[in-house]
Amino acid sequence: MKRIADSTVRRLSVYLRFLEGSSQRGLPTISSEELAAHGGTTSAQVRKDLSFFGSFGKRGLGYSVPELTSSLRDILGLGRAWKVAIVGAGKIGIALAQYDGFRSRGFHVVAVYDSDERKVGTRWDGMTVRHLSSMAADMAEYEPEIAVLAVPAEAAQEVAMGVVDAGFKAILNFAPTQLHVPPEVSVRSVNLALELEGLSYELSNRSR
Amino acid sequence: MKRIADSTVRRLSVYLRFLEGSSQRGLPTISSEELAAHGGTTSAQVRKDLSFFGSFGKRGLGYSVPELTSSLRDILGLGRAWKVAIVGAGKIGIALAQYDGFRSRGFHVVAVYDSDERKVGTRWDGMTVRHLSSMAADMAEYEPEIAVLAVPAEAAQEVAMGVVDAGFKAILNFAPTQLHVPPEVSVRSVNLALELEGLSYELSNRSR
DNA sequence: CCTAGCTTGTGAATCAATTCACAAAGTCCT
DNA sequence: AGGACTTTGTGAATTGATTCACAAGCTAGG
Predict the structure, then answer these.
(1) CATH number, position A137
(2) Are residues B157 and B98 in the same domain?
(3) Is the dihedral of CA A106, A107, A108, A110 positive or negative?
(4) Contact (CB, 8 A) for A52 and A27
(5) Residues 6+ apart with CB under 8 A from B125
(6) CA of B47 to C1' of C22 (A)
(7) Scanning every residue of chain B, which has its alpha carbon at the shortest distance from the alpha carbon of A18?
(8) B19 & B116 share domain
């Protein structure tokens, strides 16, 4: 199968979210045009995106909402629950551990780690913060698949390597650093400073 | 000036962060090759990115670290402080309001808003949560420029419109929704569900 | 069953971003 | 001062993503 562009996968998520949203209750089908309007793109783009994975619509009618919803969930690998470990029990880490948006979409937080002894043992939402050094040993018990890194920038690369060594194959990185990991490990980064600086750039160059 | 691609601006932020980082102390100059290695790109890309804004290097030598740092800060509009208002005093909103990474990079949180009366009046880090309805009136006093939206998905579009009406020209959106705003308003979105789903997709299609 | 009307799926065309590759301009050593 | 070496800046080539545009397929209504 040909490599699918990142931008395409992101849009599939957007389509899925809209399909699952309440605004869609009742209607049996939806056209690429409607899907595009809500996703901020064009109908041709929607059809092209879907065409990479098969042919889901009926000409003259559009896409069956339940069928397309289920197909997208399948494509995105959401037919199962994923186990997530939060690494870093600072403000952001704790907020993420308690965030309902994760669990409700099938991402279950099964462990929280920190390297600070003062934080180890504290409890949040029925979960006890564990020491980073026990991570590798814990893998067999919890079998987490995705590591969410919420540690200071200085520590991020080192922690990332530990996480890779422990066997994680996917990392969601909140530290404002470019992570270097082996190619078999998937990384997505959420870099708040970078987003704010993007806005700063646009505000400053509004005139163009 | 020709429209600069978003991807280029993001990379400029990455270059700047590395230049400001401690790993760079002492060395007077840096080559596009080194900058590329840390930013996860190629030297040609670095030179092309910079060339959109001028000519900052010396052939045979590279870029002066202090000069390039200052030029990048200038380009990104970081020569000044920006005032930020957090909208939504839930877990994520409060965590963001307390996050040091904002202030240390020149983004000052000057107000926190919520529409829940039970949260209005509570204090966090010396700031009092204010009611959303007072936002428009507060603008003259605080003069915030960037609104950070940390509200539930259902409320996001409506709150975004209120924020636009109040006069904000930039929004950083944490709600998992596609926001529709007038073209003169800049929006960046951080969508955790979408990032996790991207990882889920990659984990599921590892074999390819 | 036929026709008018939609809407998909997809090659071809266009637009955008990245990489190549090399002349030009400098440095550094002797 | 000269020559070997380094590194930039940038057109040209390439690769990638988006948009166009239209034949093919399906629906619905008589």
Answers:
(1) 3.40.50.720
(2) yes
(3) positive
(4) no
(5) B97, B98
(6) 15
(7) B177
(8) no
In a domain, B1, yes or no: no
Question: Residues A162-185: pLDDT tens digits?
Answer: 999 999 999 999 999 999 999 999
What residues contact B172, with CB distance under 8 A and at least 6 apart?
A: A192, A195, A196, A199, B146, B147, B148, B149, B187, B188, B189, B190
Q: Collect all residues with Cβ–Cβ distance below 8 Å to A5 and sequence separation of at least 6.
A: none
Q: 3-state SS of chain B?
A: CCCCCHHHHHHHHHHHHHHHCHHHCCCCEECHHHHHHHHCCCHHHHHHHHHCCCCCEECCCEEEHHHHHHHHHHHCCCCCCEEEEEECCCHHHHHHHHCHHHHCCCEEEEEEEECCCCCCCCEECCEEEEEHHHHHHHHHHHCCCEEEECCCHHHHHHHHHHHHHHCCCEEEECCCCCCCCCCCCEEEECCHHHHHHHHHHHHHCCCC
Q: Is A108 left (phi over 0), alpha (psi -120 to 50) or beta?
A: beta
- Is the Cβ pair B192, A99 closer than 8 Å? yes
Question: Is A173 within the bounds of a domain?
Answer: yes
Residues B90 and B65 in one domain: no
Q: Is the CB of A73 within 7 Å of strand D?
A: no
pLDDT(B61) > 50: yes
Task: Assign residue B64 the CATH number of its domain.
Answer: 1.10.10.10
Task: Quote the pLDDT of residue B171.
Answer: 98
Give the domain extent around B180.
82-195
- Residue A24: pLDDT above 80? no
Q: Report the residue of chain B nearest A7, measured CA to CA.
A: B198
- A30-49 residues near strand C (Cβ < 7 Å): 31-33, 43-44, 47-48
Which residues of chain A neighbour B95 with C-beta distances below 8 Å?
Answer: 91-92, 94-95
Question: Are A125 and A180 part of one and the same domain?
Answer: yes
Same domain, B107 and B185: yes
**Number of separate domains in chain B:** 2
pLDDT of residue A200: 98
Instruction: Name the residue with higher pLDDT: B21 or A158.
Output: A158
